[in-house]
Amino acid sequence: MSLRKTLTALNRPSSPPDSSISAVKTESLETSGPSSSKITFRPRKIRKVSPATVTASPLSSKSTVDAALRHLRISDELLGAVISAHSTTPPVFESTSTPFLSLARSILYQQLATKAAKCIYDRFVSLFRGGEPAVLPESVTSISAVDLREIGVSGRKASYLHDLAGKYEAGVLSDEMILGMSDEELVERLTSVKGIGVWTVHMFMMFSLHRPDVLPVGDLGVRKGVRDLYGLKNLPGPLQMEQLCEKWRPYRSVGSWYMWRLIESNKTSKTKLSK
Question: Which keywords label this protein (predicted)?
Answer without folding.
Answer: DNA damage, DNA repair
